C-alpha cells in the first residue's frame, strides 16, 4: 500500500499544494518552521482523522482561512482509493471514493500509519501515558472495536470519578458505585485482554528487531505492567475477577482520593533489557534502540494483522540515529514500506540509496527536486 498523491488546501501553513509521491522513499527537506512536519501531519490526518500532535482540530486550519481540505490517492492491491477529508468549523466530513462516511471510525484501515517522531525517543523513559498511547494507537488502527471500547471506557471512568467525589462529599450513597463498577470492569477487561494479545505478538517482533540492532548482545522483553494479578495469557474472565477484587480492595482509598486508581488507564508496559527495567535504568543508547525496535516491530505487527505494510512517517529522527540503527531501519523498509523522512539537511541522508524523491519546503511551498 502506498500514498501516490496528496492535495492540501489550507492545511496549517499551506495554501494549495499537489504532491506526487514516490512509492519508496520521500525526503522532505527544509529549514526549521517551513512546514515539514505539517506535511507529515496532513498525511496522518488523512489516515486517522486526527493529528498526532494536537487534539484541537481547528489548529490545523490555516490561520487566514475558515476550513481545510485534503485529498489523497492510495494504491492498495493495484486499486486506487480516494480519501478526502474536510474541516469547516466543527464539521468534519470524510469521503472514501466520493462516498461520505457515516462514522469517523470507518476511516480506519484504509491508510495505516506508523509515525516515529522525536517524542517517541521518550517512549522508554517517558511517562506511562506515552506507552499506553503507543499500544492504544496501534490496536486502534487495526480494530475499530478497540477504539469503541476505549471511548466507552473513558466515559464510564469520568462518571465513576465524579461519583467517587460525590460519595466522599456525602452527596451520593456508596451503593451507587456498583453499576459503574460493573461497566468499568467489563470494558476495562476487554481492553486489557486485547492489549495482552497484541503485546504477545509485538513482543516477539520487538525482540527480534532489537536483537538485530544490538548484534545479538541484548535481549528485549515486553511485559504488561498492571496492578491486577494476571499474566500474558490470562482469559477475559480471569482479568474480570482480578479487576473486581482489586476495586473492592481499593474502594475506600478511591473514595478518599476521588479517582479510579485501577484499570487500563493506569497500566503500563515494562521494557526489560537483559533483565533490567530500562524505563528506569536504561542508558540513552538503550532507550533509542528500544524505541526504534518498538517502531519497527509495529510495522511488522500491522503487516501481520492487516496483510499489508503501513506507511512510515519519520519526523526528524533519521538524522538522530547512528549508522547501525539507520542500516537496520533501511533494511526493514527497503522496497516494501513507503516512507516519508523529514530533515533540515540533505547531507544527513546520504546513506539513502535507491528509489527516492526529494521535496524542498520553503514557507509553506513545495518544490520537487
Ligand atoms: P522544524 O524543523 O522546526 O521541525 P517544520 O518545518 O517541521 O520545522 P512545521 O512544524 O511544519 O515546521 O511548522 C511550520 C510553520 O507552520 C510554523 O512556523 C508554524 O507557525 C506554522 N503554522 C502552524 N499552524 C499553522 C496554522 N494553523 N496556520 C498557519 N501557519 C501555521
Ligand atoms: Mg518539524
Overall description:
The protein is an alpha/beta fold and 369 residues long. It folds into two domains: 1-112 and 309-369, Rossmann fold, CATH 3.40.50.300; 126-307, Up-down Bundle (Glutathione S-transferase Yfyf (Class Pi), Chain A, domain 2). The chain contains eight helices and 15 strands. It has helices spanning 36-48, 128-142, 144-168, 177-213, 236-257, 278-281, 284-306, 323-333; strands at residues 2-9, 16-20, 25-29, 67-76, 79-88, 91-96, 99-100, 113-116, 220-225, 268-273, 276-277, 311-315, 339-343, 356-362, 365-368. It has a six-stranded antiparallel sheet with strand order 2-1-4-5-6-7, covered by helices on one side. The longest helix has 37 residues, at 177-213. It is globular. The protein starts with a strand and ends with a strand. The model has no long low-confidence stretch (mean pLDDT 94). It binds adenosine-5'-triphosphate (ATP) and magnesium ion. Residues 12-13, 30, 32-38, 59, 61-63, 344 line the site of adenosine-5'-triphosphate. Magnesium ion (MG) binds at residues 36-37, 315-316.
CATH class of the largest domain: Mainly Alpha
| Ends distance | 24 Å
Tally of helical runs: 8
Query: What value does the average pLDDT take?
Result: 94
- Spell out the helices and strands N to C: EEEHEEEEEHHHEHEEHHEHEEE
SS elements, strand count: 15
Give every kind of bound small molecule, once each. adenosine-5'-triphosphate, magnesium ion
The largest β sheet comes out as:
6 strands, antiparallel
| Radius of gyration from the alpha-carbon trace, in angstroms | 22 Å
- β-strand percent reads 15-25%
Structural class: alpha/beta
Largest beta sheet: what is the strand line-up?
2-1-4-5-6-7
Total domains, how many?
2
- Low-confidence spans: pLDDT under 50, at least 5 residues? none
CATH homologous superfamily label of the largest domain: RecF/RecN/SMC, N-terminal domain
Shape: globular
Q: Looking at CATH, which topology of the largest domain would you report? A: Glutathione S-transferase Yfyf (Class Pi), Chain A, domain 2
Q: Quickly give the CATH architecture of the largest domain.
A: Up-down Bundle
Q: Provide the helix percentage.
A: 40-55%
Amino acid at each position: 500500500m502506498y500514498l501516490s498523491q496528496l492535495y492540501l488546501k489550507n492545511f496549517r501553513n499551506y495554501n494549495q499544494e499537489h504532491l506526487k509521491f514516490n512509492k519508496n522513499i520521500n525526503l522532505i527537506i527544509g529549514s526549521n518552521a517551513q512546514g515539514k512536519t505539517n506535511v507529515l501531519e496532513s498525511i496522518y490526518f488523512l489516515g486517522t482523522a486526527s493529528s498526532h500532535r494536537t487534539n484541537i482540530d481547528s489548529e490545523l486550519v490555516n490561520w487566514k482561512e475558515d476550513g481545510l481540505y485534503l485529498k489523497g490517492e492510495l494504491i492498495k492491491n493495484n486499486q486506487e482509493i480516494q480519501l478526502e477529508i474536510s474541516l469547516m468549523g466543527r464539521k468534519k466530513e470524510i469521503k472514501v471514493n466520493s462516498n461520505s462516511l457515516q462514522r469517523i471510525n470507518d476511516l480506519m484501515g484504509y491508510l495505516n500509519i506508523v509515525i516515529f517522531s522525536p517524542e517517541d525517543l521518550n517512549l522508554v523513559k517517558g511517562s506511562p501515558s506515552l506507552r499506553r498511547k503507543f499500544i492504544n494507537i496501534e490496536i486502534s488502527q487495526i480494530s475499530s472495536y478497540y477504539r469503541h471500547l476505549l471511548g466507552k471506557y473513558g466515559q464510564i471512568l469520568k462518571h465513576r470519578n465524579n461519583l467517587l467525589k460525590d460519595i466522599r462529599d456525602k452527596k451520593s450513597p456508596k451503593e451507587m458505585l456498583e453499576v459503574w463498577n460493573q461497566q468499568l470492569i467489563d470494558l476495562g477487561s476487554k481492553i486489557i485482554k486485547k492489549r495482552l494479545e497484541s503485546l504477545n505478538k509485538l513482543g516477539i517482533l520487538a525482540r527480534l528487531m532489537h536483537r538485530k540492532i544490538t548484534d545479538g548482545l541484548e535481549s528485549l522483553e515486553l511485559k504488561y505492567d498492571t496492578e491486577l494479578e494476571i499474566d500474558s495469557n490470562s482469559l477475559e474472565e480471569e482479568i474480570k475477577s482480578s479487576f473486581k477484587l482489586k476495586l473492592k480492595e481499593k474502594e475506600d482509598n478511591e473514595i478518599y482520593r476521588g479517582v479510579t486508581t485501577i484499570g487500563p488507564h493506569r497500566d503500563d508496559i515494562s521494557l526489560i533489557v537483559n533483565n533490567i527495567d530500562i524505563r528506569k535504568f536504561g542508558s540513552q543508547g538503550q532507550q533509542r534502540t528500544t524505541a526504534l525496535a518498538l517502531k519497527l516491530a509495529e510495522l511488522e505487527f500491522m503487516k501481520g494483522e492487516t496483510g499489508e505494510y503501513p506507511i512510515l512517517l519519520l519526523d526528524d529522527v533519521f538524522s538522530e540515529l547512528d549508522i547501525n540503527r539507520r542500516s537496520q531501519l533501511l533494511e526493514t523498509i527497503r522496497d516494501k514500506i513507503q516512507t516519508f523522512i523529514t530533515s533540515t539537511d540533505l547531507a544527513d541522508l546520504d546513506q539513502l540509496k535507491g528509489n527516492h524523491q526529494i521535496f524542498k519546503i520553503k514557507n509553506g511551498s513545495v518544490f520537487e527536486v
